[in-house]
Design brief:
Layout: H1 15-55, H2 62-79, E1 87-92, E2 102-112, E3 126-136
Antiparallel strand pairs: 1-2, 2-3
Helix pairs in contact: 1-2
Length: 152
């Protein structure tokens, strides 16, 4: 038998490198997305732990409670194996260690991403993941100032 033509040859072999390239870019996109999800989980856990540490603090001052909240948030970030230099803790509104006071902590975590081909608006920048948690100081707690009655 002599080979005179390409009869029997299965076409499409030239598409394999392109398919592999699409696969690699897709995996890289998933890695970027998972980094953002992981950053959001770490920020939420840090905000939750900061709020709990603040409202359960022995005080006696708001500054001491804030220091405990910052330590608890740092421990949560370390527990998630996140980069300790990329997060920031702040309060939303005022934070006072007194009975019935609501305190809200917001943690932002900067997630670095890498640039992907064909995907122009995503990647190669920093995406900020945010976690927010609110707690109320125990109304029957001893040793704290009493909250003023609501206005109105």
């Amino acid at each position: 038998m002599r080979w005179r033509d390409e009869g029997g040859f299965v076409g499409g072999f030239e598409a394999l490198p392109f398919g592999f390239l699409v696969f690699v870019v897709g995996v890289a996109l998933l890695v970027n997305a998972w980094g953002v999800v992981d950053g959001t989980l770490a920020a939420s856990a840090a905000a939750r732990e900061a709020a709990r540490a603040f409202v359960e603090s022995d005080g006696p001052t708001t500054g001491a409670a804030m220091a405990e909240a910052r330590r608890a948030a740092a421990d949560a970030i370390d527990g998630h194996k996140a980069d300790p230099g990329r997060w920031e803790l702040r309060t939303e509104g005022g934070a006072e260690l007194r009975r019935c006071a609501r305190v809200t902590f917001v943690v932002t975590y900067d997630v670095p991403t890498f640039r992907l081909p064909w995907i122009g608006g995503f990647g190669g920048a920093v995406i900020t993941a945010t976690g927010r948690h609110s707690e109320v100081v125990d109304p029957y707690r001893q040793g704290l100032a009493v909250a003023p009655p609501p206005a109105g």
